[in-house]
Design brief:
This protein is of the alpha+beta class. It is built from 20 helices and 22 strands. Helix 1 crosses helix 3, helix 4 crosses helix 5 and helix 10 packs antiparallel against helix 11.
């Protein structure tokens, strides 16, 4: 069995759908605690099971999860997880997919805790004086240290049923054989795509692609942990521990990649580049989800060196209030803003390029000379024109992407326009000025040449003294421009209340007002878009392929979108930088 996590798409849906079934209870039980994992564990995703009692009853997100009208979404989430767990080459498309009833039944497996992790390859050791082995011409299987451990108490029969059904869906039935790992019977599952090992024993089920990984895990699951060789002894884990605990945990130790990066046959050395850009200044990435009454809160951090010159210098020091917040239209459904230091990033990249340059050569200088000839200004001046603030806003209650607005902060409008005209010369279809605003129509496909115009798929820009606005349609662009000077009190009281928890300087801000969404219209929009995508199927597609493409996902046809409005109200968050790293804080109510 090759378990794999789902792949969310947008920030709001990541937080809503993933946290909906992955926010653990305060008193739930994990199959193994993180500190007990082997020391070579470089990543883990720990989930302690769905909450019970008041923790579940009072939480808005779990009110949504438990709502009968949310059942189609629950089923779709589990179905996607099952689909992701098997290589598409191994699936038999002729076999019937999960029914809604089956998916709903199997989704209750998420009631119990599990851990998904990765164990790094053990370092090879050679005795003193030994002759290094000659390179082998025989292909060596790549290391795959992924592992999965599940607390199967009360779910033994259902888990076995689910695993058997997944295997029955495969195009070629895997070859099964019994082996023993760490004294425990295990099932060896051999497929064309690789070999995996699966164990259902006592209180747990465990799977991995490497038997040596299970040899490290199984004694710990049996209660025979080796504290001297556990993750608890890891310096990276100890540093991250204050940012973990109590709820869902995510932890990833960032190795010194310069020691792992091989040199290629052409002599390019990646290690010195990674050293020069100080990538190993990032020590770990961690986070957790906590239940706080009606709220669900996610907090994460990238721990590392934030001094000038490190790769974390890419994140700006921040401001007390994002400039684009002042021009947000009052009807905005969502707002997402981030601030970056582009000149600092360029300096980091220059160090990386210089690390592999031949002696006596200065490739950065050559690049700057070429850039100046193309841009009509020094590269440093061009990089200083953007403020580094990037913002996206949604103005449509139906969540129509055509009403999405993007805002980029700028300095010096005349110089910015000059640079845009240079870079986009062949894509600019039209330009006009209205007062202090300059409007540009940009072709995303096709170029304007001397023999005429062959352009299509247009995008629209508006350049003001402080910002560049971008939108797919002119209507959305004018709506954003018209709303920027509207005097209004921000209807973001929940955010204003949360702002007191954040430092004076922040480099990211985001919120989403779920109560402003017209969920019925949003559902219809998603259905219409799915139909349009089906209509664009290649003319050479077979009738079966066209029929499959025209079938709408069950989550669109069966789900009642009003269930979101009943439970979700607001999402808000911020990010900031300090001497410890980059912090992220977001909550949903």
């Amino acid at each position: 069995m090759n378990p794999a996590p789902p792949s969310p798409v947008i920030r709001a849906l990541i937080f809503v759908l993933a946290a909906a079934f992955l926010a653990p209870a305060l008193h739930a039980q994990a199959p193994i605690e993180a500190a007990q994992l082997p020391a070579r564990t470089s990543f883990y995703f720990l989930w302690r099971g769905t909450p019970t009692g008041d923790a579940r009853k009072t939480n808005a997100l779990f009110g949504l999860w438990d709502d009968p009208d949310f059942a189609p979404v629950r089923s779709a989430i589990f179905e996607n997880m099952v689909s992701a767990s098997t290589d598409s080459k191994d699936k038999d498309a002729s076999k019937p997919p999960l029914t809604r009833a089956e998916a709903e039944e199997y989704s209750t497996l998420l009631d119990n805790g599990f851990v998904l992790g990765y164990m790094s390859k053990p370092e090879s050791k050679m005795t003193a004086g030994a002759t290094p082995p000659k390179p082998s011409t025989t292909p060596v299987n790549a290391w795959n240290g992924l592992f999965f451990v599940y607390n199967r108490v009360g779910k033994e029969a259902l888990l076995s049923k689910a695993v058997l059904r997944m295997r029955a869906q495969e195009k070629d039935l895997p070859q099964l054989s019994q082996v023993t790992i760490a004294g425990i019977p295990a099932l060896k599952v051999e497929r064309k795509s690789g070999t995996a090992y699966w164990i259902e024993h006592g209180k747990y089920a465990a799977g991995a692609n490497e038997p040596s990984v299970l040899e490290q895990l199984l004694p710990r699951l049996e209660g025979n942990s080796n504290d001297a060789n556990s993750l608890a002894q890891s310096a990276a884990y100890q540093e991250a521990k204050p940012h973990l605990g109590g709820v869902l945990e995510i932890f990833g130790a960032i190795p010194a990649l310069k020691n792992l990066a091989p040199d290629n046959a052409q002599g390019f050395r990646l290690g010195p580049v990674l050293t020069a850009i100080k990538l190993d200044a990032i020590r770990s990435i961690s986070g957790h989800v906590a239940l706080d009454g009606a709220k669900t809160r996610f907090q994460g951090i990238i721990l590392g060196d934030t001094t000038p010159g490190s790769i974390l210098d890419f994140w700006s020091a921040g401001t007390d209030s994002p400039p684009s917040l002042a021009v947000m239209p009052p009807n905005a459904i969502s707002y997402s803003e981030s601030q970056f230091d582009l000149p600092a990033l360029y300096q980091v990249l220059k160090h990386g390029v210089a690390a592999v340059a031949p002696s006596g050569q200065n490739p950065a200088m050559m690049l700057e000379m070429v850039a100046q000839s193309k841009l009509g200004m020094p590269l440093a001046d061009a990089l200083a024109l953007p403020t580094g603030e990037f913002t996206s806003m949604q103005l449509s209650p139906a969540l129509d992407p055509q009403k999405s607005i993007y805002v980029f902060g700028i300095h010096k409008k005349p110089e910015t326009l000059k640079l845009m005209r240079t870079i986009l010369a062949d894509q600019i279809s039209s330009e006009r000025a209205e007062g202090e605003i300059t409007y540009l129509k940009i072709s995303l496909h096709g170029k304007q040449g001397a023999q005429g115009t062959a352009q299509w798929d247009f995008y629209h820009l508006a350049v003001t003294q402080d910002f560049i606005y971008g939108a797919p349609t002119t209507d959305a662009l004018h709506e954003a421009i018209a709303g920027r000077d509207t005097m209004h009190t921000m209807v973001v009281t929940p955010y204003q209340e949360a702002r007191t928890d954040y430092p004076a300087k922040i480099n990211g801000l985001y919120f989403f007002d779920f109560q402003k969404v017209d969920w019925t219209a949003a559902k219809q929009h998603w259905i219409d878009e799915a139909k349009k995508a089906a209509d664009k199927q290649n003319a050479t597609a077979t009738p079966a392929q066209k029929a499959a493409a025209s079938k709408l996902p069950s989550v669109l046809t069966n789900a009642d979108p009003k269930v979101f409005a009943r439970h979700l109200h607001y999402m808000a968050g911020a990010s900031w930088k300090d001497e410890n790293g980059i912090h992220f804080d977001q909550w949903l109510n």
